[in-house]
């Protein structure tokens, strides 16, 4: 019998097969990435829907929307201007099996019972609360839900209105807005819906512009290189503090009027020689967020005050009526500013 000799692939044939596989992978990868992003975006929208429902359930029980947090200490203890709410009796209270004073915590803490997180809300140890990574507080397009060096984060911020006054621990102080905004007065400091904890909270019937026209919560603007990770707790002023107790600052709330100026280098780290960019405080993609470094290339902590996100085309939001919407990055500045005020009597509205 004659033996049949099998021929092997030649080198050229093998290279052709590899090239075909590479082309197919190149064609499929963008489609896979689009499907993955669509799923992440939908999950992010669902998180905001749950947050919006929690706000409404809180308001049904308490009569007002939850508070935005503040700096300081309980009455009778020495005051502090920065950078969170502290109870000097915390250790003693916790050791006795009692929660410390958390009056200055932000809305993220107060809605916990309405998102099935009673165990975190009722935890005695402050460290347990700080370390709790609440899944619906994270956008899956940006990062996984995890704690960093003992403190978790949140990718969604409340709407504080037109302009922002950082800190302001005293009950009658308006403070200064900074970052190029006009001087803050008591009137325009408090025209949002998530207000600092030592002023009167907002009831839904005080939203005179209409709940369907007023922003409640949206994704916060954060450069991909400034996102807190397991290796770094975050050097962006809007992502460097614990999720539930950052005082009254950009970790908790953002605003939507005026302009913002910062060093910009086309999405790359911006050193001292970079161009100063001035933009309206409309939502922006994360890659355009501030990422400032010093002459040695080390990160410089910055605080930006506007909304934005990691999704292509727009930012995910929930409005005061509970509706979840994607607002495009091309939204008109005046229209967005109108959406961020609850009592501006504007005729502009966001329909997308």
From TrEMBL:
Keywords: Membrane, Transmembrane, Transmembrane helix. Pfam families: N_methyl (PF07963), SBP_bac_10 (PF07596). The chain crosses the membrane at residues 12-32. InterPro entries: DUF1559, N_methyl_site, Pilin-like, Pre_pil_HX9DG_C. Residues 33-333 form the DUF1559 domain. It comes from the Bacteria. Coiled coil: none annotated. NCBIfam families: IV_pilin_GFxxxE, pre_pil_HX9DG. This is DUF1559 domain-containing protein. It comes from Telmatocola sphagniphila.
């Amino acid at each position: 019998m004659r033996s049949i000799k099998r021929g092997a692939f030649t080198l050229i044939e093998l290279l052709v097969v590899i090239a075909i596989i590479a082309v197919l992978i190149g064609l499929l990868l963008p489609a896979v990435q689009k499907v993955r992003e669509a799923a992440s975006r939908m999950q992010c929208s669902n998180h905001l829907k749950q947050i919006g429902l929690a706000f409404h359930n809180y308001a049904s029980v308490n009569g007002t929307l939850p508070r935005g947090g503040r700096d300081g200490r309980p009455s009778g203890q020495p005051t502090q201007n920065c950078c969170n709410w502290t109870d000097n009796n915390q250790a003693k209270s916790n050791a006795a099996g009692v929660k410390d004073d958390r009056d200055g915590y932000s809305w993220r803490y107060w809605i916990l019972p309405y998102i099935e997180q009673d165990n975190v809300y009722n935890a005695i140890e402050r460290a347990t609360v700080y370390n709790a990574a609440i899944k619906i507080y994270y956008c899956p397009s940006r990062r996984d839900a995890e704690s960093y060096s003992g403190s978790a984060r949140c990718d969604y911020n409340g709407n504080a209105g037109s302009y922002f006054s950082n800190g302001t621990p005293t009950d009658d102080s308006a403070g200064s807005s900074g970052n190029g905004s006009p001087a803050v007065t008591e009137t325009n400091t408090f025209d949002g819906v998530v207000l600092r904890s030592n002023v009167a909270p907002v009831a839904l019937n005080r939203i005179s512009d209409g709940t369907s026209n007023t922003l409640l919560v949206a994704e916060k603007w954060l450069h991909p290189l400034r996102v807190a990770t397991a290796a770094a707790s975050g050097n962006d002023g809007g992502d460097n503090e614990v999720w539930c107790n950052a005082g009254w600052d950009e970790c908790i709330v953002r605003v939507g009027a005026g302009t913002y100026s910062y060093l910009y280098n086309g999405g790359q780290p911006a050193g001292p020689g970079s161009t100063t960019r001035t933009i309206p405080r409309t939502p922006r993609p994360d890659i355009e967020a501030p990422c400032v470094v010093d002459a040695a290339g080390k990160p410089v902590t910055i605080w930006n005050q506007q909304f934005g996100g990691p999704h292509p085309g727009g930012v995910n939001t929930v409005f005061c009526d509970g509706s979840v919407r994607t607002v495009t990055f091309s939204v008109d500045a005046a229209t967005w500013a109108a959406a961020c005020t609850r009592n501006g009597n504007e005729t502009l509205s966001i329909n997308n």
